[in-house]
Each structure stands twice: as structure tokens, then as C-alpha cells.
Amino acid sequence: MSNVIIVxxxxxxSQLANMLSDAGNNVCCIxxxxxxxxxxxxxxxxxxxxxxxxxxxxxxxxGIEECDVLAAVTQLDxxxxxxxxxxxxxxxxxxxxxxxxxPGRERAYMQLGIDYVCGTALVAEEMxxxxxxxxxxxxxxxxxxxxxxxxxxxxxxxxxxxxxSVRVGELExxxxxxxxxFERKDGSSSSIPTTDSVLHNGDTVLAAVxxxxxxxxxxxxxx
Length: 223
Prior knowledge:
Elements: E1 3-7, H1 11-22, E2 26-31, E3 47-50, H2 56-61, E4 69-72, H3 77-89, E5 95-100, H4 106-112, E6 115-118, H5 119-132, E7 137-142, E8 145-152, E9 165-167, H6 168-175, E10 177-183, E11 190-191, E12 198-200, E13 204-210, H7 214-217, E14 221-222
Parallel strand pairs: 1-2, 1-4, 2-3, 4-5, 5-6
Antiparallel strand pairs: 7-8, 8-13, 8-14, 9-12, 10-11, 10-13
């Protein structure tokens, strides 16, 4: 059981508060508006504090000195950052998490050592996955790359690889991708490739592809 402070009691904050409370944690919500606490519903069994989330007095009343986790989930990046910094630097809270709307600030948060969740990026990734569902199978997103599983298509009449096979090194070099693994079309074998491994038309391929190269690379995907 953990002692958790949540700053911001909007849709995300109230949902998080109820989830943590239902799991048996001690939860206190801070919000500058009393009306925001109505989002918690009648079954919330934690506590609430009206105040500003980076104000020391409000945090002390919320139990910051015994706090295990603080989550700053207001609608303002600057407020969330200030809450995180106060919790980290003044009260040494073991785990501080800030919601981040502007993905352009991710590097700054990483440099400051602040754990964060970027809602904008998550929404973008979900939309990207839906778009990519027509071109093989989206597995995961890692920074600037997508991990995709697809059947290799090499019979493109207008391409240099208009053949039945290609070496992994050629495909990687000319299209800025990394082939992670492959399985033969007939399922007879699978392997983690070297640059000299040969891929055949119809083989199942697991590859990491940069976002900005996916559109041009889709011509090698089928099914």
C-alpha cells in the first residue's frame, strides 16, 4: 500500500485516483477548484485538498512528508513541472510522475530526471497504429522507429529489388531499416539475420523502420 498524491482532479486525475484507491492505496487529490472533486464520484474513499499543487502548505496538508508517489496531471505543462520539481527537490518524494502535453519538451524532462507520460504522443501512436494496420502488423513504437511484422514483397517491377530474393545488408543499407528476424514463407525455418542472410519474396519479416521512411518502405510489405 502506497501513499499517493495526485495534483489535478480532472478526467485523468480523477480516474487515476479512483483506480489507485480501489487498489488499496492511500490517495489524496489536490486541485485549486473545489468543483473538480465532483469528478471523483461518491465511491472515492481518499481525501481532497483545495489548493495549488506546488504550494508547500497544500502539499504538507496532503501528507507530502509521507508520500511515496506524486502524480502531477493538471492541464498545464508548467504547473506539472513545478509540482514535480517541488516534490523532488524539497520533499524527496521517491517517485514523481508528470503529465506532459508538449512532446517537444520530452528531452528537457529526461535531462531533469523527471518521469513523465506524454498524452499527445500516446494519442499519436494509437492513430499511427490504426493507419499502419493496412500495411502489415504494427508491433510497437520506440522513439523515432516502428517495429513492424509483414510479408516481404520483392516483385516490384519498378524497383531495383524486382527479384525473388535480396540480402539483408542491401535492404538495410538502401532503405534505412533494421531487419530483426525473419521466417521462411513455408515456415521451414526462422532466424536472427546477419547482413549476408538472404530474404525471399513472401518471407515473414520483423523490422524496425524509422517513421519518416515507412511510407516509401510500404511497397515491400504485403498482407
